[in-house]
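Re: [ENG-882] Designed sequences occasionally contain unexpected residues at chain ends

Forwarding the minimal case from QA. Structure tokens:
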């Protein structure tokens, strides 16, 4: 069943009528996300093929406006996809939409999100690069029935404003669609771009090791791709570098994700890669999300190198290369991380907002106003380096770790992941950490017809007032998102979710008891908002 109401069937024309509002609802920050296939009750299809055609044609129109090519040149757009079961269907629809808008289509097949951005930068006429624009068909770690798009030009990923513009254009294009349908493109070019992208990663590690052909010889590294698109990393990156990859798991693409969610923030996923490392007595484990823009690692003792630890590790590597530089992170990073970056590593920690695009854009902005920054990274496992064109690339983060292993071995420091573990030595970790997500009921009368955002802002304002009147609670002096407060040896941050009608609450404390005290401070404010579902917090504070 389609989400959209059907227009009255006059003569033979049955194009479901879809208004602009329904198109705009497909926006998810700087991505487009929707339900691509039937199968989950209560989740009707919101991204059918014809809507996809319209979105692709709208991207082409947007790109033509930006690039203004002269009449003799046709623009080229590359398309790639992750392992989702709707990938082929959407790739065909995207190709028809681009072709109808007069743009050349180059299909890469199974690919990673960072590879797609990279194709706008690669200079190689034989493979039609650089392309003018690129589309990745993915819904990251979301369930199997979802899908969506990320768009790139050589200036980076498109932002919120551009996505809204594209969806508005798509709604107009869709209105003019006829029952006849768009033709299949006359000529689609197919390129094995992942071969190019992976050989760049291999070259980067070889270079860092002082041009050794197999700098990872003697290392045993297991990869867990969670049946997403990241399986290439074992056979196309690690093995040519000499590493043993036996025991790697879930490398085959399978859009039903039968083993675990491909998501380095997911507990089960991290447990799966940790088990693989320990069972195989491997030196290192590497895990990716579905489209490989996020990653995490596990050391040989089974210690997870994700979230704050991964940021600490990457900061140590980047600050060795660029002493004193600023590390930009998302807002839910720990106080211990700030101390580590500033006191141990001698850098500056700029704790900004949640959202990978927000941290990357902030790092670029800092550089433009004279503050040097080389790393923008989120606890989610998204990370981008200046040296890599600010490409949001989970595989490149792992390449930086491999460089470290390879150069340690080359300089006689031996194999194993100790060189990485040693780099995070001294990072203070909280005794207790939790994230609770408090939902706002958008249909509740207390919203009085207003938006969930306005309601969430009112909760935050009320909490802010309570904090101001309590001497035990100390507001963070610099804060870019929500209300962050230190007390009882720990901290909490209550903020609005980037996309959902939710107020995520992060609490870290020396122990659960102190974390509960922080939770109670939030609860005293939250209780007064009947549309806010505080049940998770109620449960948490009942020790
Ligand atoms: O605000 P939240 O609901 O916690 O979501 C925040 C997250 O949203 C998306 O997944 C983005 O890709 C991440 O970069 C961001 O961190």
């Amino acid at each position: 069943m389609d989400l959209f109401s059907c227009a009255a069937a006059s003569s033979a024309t049955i194009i479901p009528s879809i208004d602009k509002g329904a198109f705009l609802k497909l926006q998810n920050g700087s991505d487009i996300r929707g339900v691509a296939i039937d199968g989950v009750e209560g989740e009707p299809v919101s991204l059918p093929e014809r809507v996809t055609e319209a979105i692709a044609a709208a991207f082409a129109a947007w790109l033509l406006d930006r690039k203004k090519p002269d009449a003799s040149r046709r623009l080229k757009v590359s398309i790639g996809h992750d392992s989702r079961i709707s990938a082929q269907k959407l790739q065909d629809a995207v190709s028809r939409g681009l072709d109808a808008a007069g743009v050349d289509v180059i299909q890469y097949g199974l690919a990673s999100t960072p590879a797609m951005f990279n194709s706008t930068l690669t200079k190689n006429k034989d493979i039609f690069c650089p392309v003018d624009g690129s589309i990745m068909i993915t819904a990251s770690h979301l369930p199997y029935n979802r899908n969506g798009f990320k768009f790139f030009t050589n200036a980076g990923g498109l932002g919120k404003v551009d996505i809204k513009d594209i969806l508005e254009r798509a709604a107009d294009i869709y209105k003019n669609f006829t029952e006849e349908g768009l033709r299949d493109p006359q000529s689609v070019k197919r390129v094995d771009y992942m071969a190019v992208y992976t050989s760049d990663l291999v070259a980067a590690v070889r270079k860092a090791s002082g041009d050794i052909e197999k700098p990872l010889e003697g290392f045993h590294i297991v990869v867990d791709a969670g049946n997403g698109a990241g399986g290439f990393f074992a056979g196309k990156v690690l093995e040519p570098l000499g590493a043993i990859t036996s025991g790697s798991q879930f490398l085959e693409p399978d859009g039903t994700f039968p083993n675990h969610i491909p998501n380095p923030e997911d507990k089960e996923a991290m447990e799966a890669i940790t088990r693989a490392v320990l069972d195989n007595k491997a030196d290192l484990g590497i895990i990716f999300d579905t489209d490989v823009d996020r990653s995490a690692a596990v050391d040989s003792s089974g210690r997870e190198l994700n979230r704050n630890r991964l940021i600490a590790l990457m900061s140590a590597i980047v600050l060795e290369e660029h002493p004193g530089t600023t590390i930009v992170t998302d807002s839910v990073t720990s106080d211990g991380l700030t101390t580590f970056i500033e006191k141990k590593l001698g850098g500056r920690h700029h704790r900004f907002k949640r959202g990978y695009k927000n941290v990357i854009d902030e790092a670029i902005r800092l550089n433009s106003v004279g503050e040097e920054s080389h790393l923008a990274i989120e606890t989610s496992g998204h990370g981008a380096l200046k040296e890599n064109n600010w490409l949001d690339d989970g595989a490149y983060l792992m390449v930086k770790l491999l460089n470290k292993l390879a150069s340690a071995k080359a300089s006689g420091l031996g194999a194993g992941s100790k060189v990485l573990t040693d780099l995070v030595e001294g990072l203070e970790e909280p005794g207790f950490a939790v994230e609770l997500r408090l939902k706002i009921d958008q249909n509740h009368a207390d919203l009085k017809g207003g938006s969930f955002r306005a309601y969430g802002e009112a909760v935050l304002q009320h909490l802010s007032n309570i904090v101001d009147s309590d001497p035990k609670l100390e507001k963070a002096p610099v804060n870019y998102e929500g209300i962050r407060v230190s007390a009882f040896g720990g901290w909490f941050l209550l903020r609005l979710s980037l996309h959902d009608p939710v107020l995520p609450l992060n609490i870290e404390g020396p122990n659960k008891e102190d974390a509960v005290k922080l939770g109670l401070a939030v609860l005293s404010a939250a209780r007064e908002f009947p549309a806010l579902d505080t049940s998770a917090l109620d449960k948490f504070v009942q020790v």
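QA comment: On inspection the terminal residues look reasonable. The longest helix spans residues 49-67. Proposing we downgrade this to a documentation issue.
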